[in-house]
Amino acid sequence: MPDRNQLNSVTAFAPATVANVGCGFDVLGFAIHNQGDVITAVRSDQPGVRIAGITGDEGRLPLEAEKNTAGLSVISLLRSIDGPVPGIELSIEKRMPLGSGLGSSACSSVAAVVAVNRLMGTPFSKSELLPFTVEGEMAASGTPHADNVAASLFGGFVLVKSHFPPDVVQLPTPAELYCCIIHPHIEIQTRQSRLILKKDVPLEKAVTQWANVGGLVASLYRDDYELLGRSLHDEIIEPVRSVLIPGFTEMKEAAIDASALGCSISGSGPSVFALCKGEEIARKAGKNMGSILKALGLEYDLHISSINREGASVREES
Amino acid sequence: MPDRNQLNSVTAFAPATVANVGCGFDVLGFAIHNQGDVITAVRSDQPGVRIAGITGDEGRLPLEAEKNTAGLSVISLLRSIDGPVPGIELSIEKRMPLGSGLGSSACSSVAAVVAVNRLMGTPFSKSELLPFTVEGEMAASGTPHADNVAASLFGGFVLVKSHFPPDVVQLPTPAELYCCIIHPHIEIQTRQSRLILKKDVPLEKAVTQWANVGGLVASLYRDDYELLGRSLHDEIIEPVRSVLIPGFTEMKEAAIDASALGCSISGSGPSVFALCKGEEIARKAGKNMGSILKALGLEYDLHISSINREGASVREES
Fold first, then answer.
1. Which of A51, A106, A234, A300 could cysteine-pair with A149, CB 3.0–4.6 Å?
2. Which residues have C-beta within 8 Å of that of residue A171, sequence separation ≥ 6?
3. In order of start, what are the domains of chain B with their CATH numbers?
4. From the candidates A40, A137, A173, A238, which is the catalytic residue?
5. Triad B156, B161, B163: Cα angle to 5°
6. Is A23 close to B167, i.e. CB distance below 8 A?
7. Do B211 and A236 touch (CB under 8 A)?
8. pLDDT digit string (tens) for B32-81?
């Protein structure tokens, strides 16, 4: 007999994220507002997990649950529940472009487990949900990655000490921090952009990089925007990957000209982000960066957002 | 006519320091108590900087001011003062062994400039003194290094974003943090221990290292001893340098067995440090580590200390 208080449908939102954050390749990430995935999970008489439909993906994402990051994350979650579990039907609404470097697959994983967790009566905390989302991400990138999923799930800035099992530190967010993200309408596959990375790095550059990661983490605790700016440098990954992004160097200069604290590649690109003190500077940086792409004849989207501190959340339930 | 309030003699103490701190090669350091240098600076009718005497160095340090780290730091300081400067005579009392990996030359640089700065009526803040000490350090190691001098000058934990000009972030210190340092009576030259390092490191290990640096910095702000322990790993430098330290692997195991949070090489060695929550664990770790060296037939010193948060200070003036 069904529980009267039992939910039959839950809709959750998971925000898009910027991973790497300059110096923090594979270890840092933060969440933004508005962009992301909305997923509705509905109880079904049919056992197992099914994808009822996907919008906003131009038909490119797999509808088989076992091949879909959202489906795989939910399957992983349900396996961890003792006793019988209901059938689940997922409807995925992508409110962000695929392959933009804003953690599109992570949004699907996170929104799906947050919706299903609520549907099941919240058996897991957010931290407990994290491993399920990392398993879902594996389907997208081939290796376990927790940076985008952790930022999307928890919100704010995260430091990933270990991807699997995930060991994630939630970091504070300076109140006036804004992000400007420009998404040129070209596509880079995460797998491809990993392949071009060099397997070895000079020790000297690695030392600079970990000084910058330490500085960036300290800057978040200190509300120290200048230190944040001095730490937002990537001497290892950005020089290699930025060649895939037309106008990157000029966009970065344009953002810094607009008084952005720093500018680098979001995830594996092609989106480029600039962190700024205050919305006005973020808008100016975005305008400057846009004019570079315009001159190159490239289409783009522009997003201005404060840092999303809430992370994924339930939007509707019935 | 001499100023009546003018000081004629100032004695300052600068504490010994642990640089690198596991994951933070060339970027992290902290100061300890008791070990260090005591330097007395006295006004002299004879122009220029002279070293009047050095004790505790077994006659190994140069008495010519232009070749001595303390002398060079003071010369650098005096050059930054407008107008005529008095002659200075330095007496150096080393209260720590040379070549132990505890920043011996940094102590000399720091104690000397702190004493002379006071003697001159404190024209410079501690931050302003830092570049002079880095110049002094260059004489000892051949390259500018700010990690030991910054920790000795400011106390507590420091993150060095850039060595010269120095960009140093002072980090908080968890209250219950204790350090156990064991100094085997062997000597390693800093220059030698840098030469054996590999010029390139695998990207994968570098990523782990900067995740650990980020984790360690966060742990200090969070008072999170467990995170500190999970971050105190060095997969890049320690495996290479530890071969120069007899019994290192066994000492590290012995420290962890005693519930130390982590254990690694202090600076370029041969001293080995363990960070611990509370004095009791630090004492037990020290005892365990000592028994390893004893079994190898090696003499050693053992120091148990809380973190020195004050840094260098004036001890006497007249």
1. A106
2. A156, A157, A158, A159, A217, A220, A221, B218
3. 9-172 (3.30.230.10), 177-306 (3.30.70.890)
4. A137
5. 95
6. no
7. no
8. 999 999 999 999 999 999 999 999 998 999 999 999 999 999 999 999 99
